[in-house]
Design goal:
By secondary structure, this protein is α/β, with parallel strands linked by helices. It has one domain: Alpha/Beta hydrolase fold, catalytic domain (Rossmann fold), CATH 3.40.50.1820. The chain contains seven helices and nine strands. Strand 4, helix 3 and strand 5 form a beta-alpha-beta unit. The longest helix has 16 residues.
Length: 246
Amino acid sequence: MKLNNQFFLEGTNGKAVLLIHGITSGASQMMPMAQFLNDYGYSVYGVNLAGHGTYPQDMFHIGCQQFIEKAEYDYALLKKEYDTVYVGGLSTGGCLSLYLAAKHPEIAGILPISSPLELCDGSFIAAKYPEGTVYFHRPMEGKVGIAQKYHVHYEDIPIVIFKALYDLMDILNEDGFLQQVKCPALIIQAQNDEVAEPDSAEKIYNAISSEVKEMYRPETGGHNIVLADERLEAFRKCVEFLNNKG
């Protein structure tokens, strides 16, 4: 059975990484990245967004504030055990890594991946649904490669959950908010991202105040680069960054 349980991988170097998945997916989406980081000594805590990893109906009661509160809780839990904590995430998870960094200057570094400040027209999140639509059907069939195993999500998704991401993007886009991010940052986004506006990476890079910041923009990999063929090079960039800069 495919599950989206939260997970913890204990490392050997005394440093930890909080990993947060994208909206409508689950913790398993980040498992390949977590295993890669763990192989290099990092403890990794892969968590679920609020309202995820349980039942689709739970999403009806979730908004941006619940996303933030859950991320704050998960970070605090990890921080109790480790002096050095990094935060990374995909899409909504990456946005939350930016939010946490703005609020917690002690964070050792962040790895926002495919993090939208705007969404591409035509993506399933930005789509215009007919009035009265409650669920968006997103079939599990058709996935290839490791996405078959790790990209586990609900097939019927309450579209009200998308507002939580829009509200989170609104916070990040507020004047001066991203300037509060001062920790080391590696921003990753494929140039062919079909969900997050591809220029989001440059906007984030230019907006944050971090003295140590890098950007990795591969030509391919798409939005879900953590499960694409291009993932290994992205993961190597993350390890190199954490080892040398974070």
